[in-house]
Amino acid sequence: MYVDVVDLRNFYGGPLGTLVRRHLRAKLVEMWPKVSGDRVLGLGYATPFLRPFLGRAERVIGFMPARQGVVNWPSEGPSATALVDECALPLPDSSIDRMLLVHALETADDPGEVLREVWRVMAPGGRLIAVVPNRIGLWARLETTPFGFGRPFTQGQLDTALKDALFSPIDWRGALYMLPSTRRLAMRSAATLERFGTRTWPGFAGLLVVEATKQLYQGIPQRVGGRLRTAPVFRPALALEEARHESAETL
Question: Could you say which residues of the chain have pLDDT below 50?
Answer without folding.
Answer: 219-224, 226-251
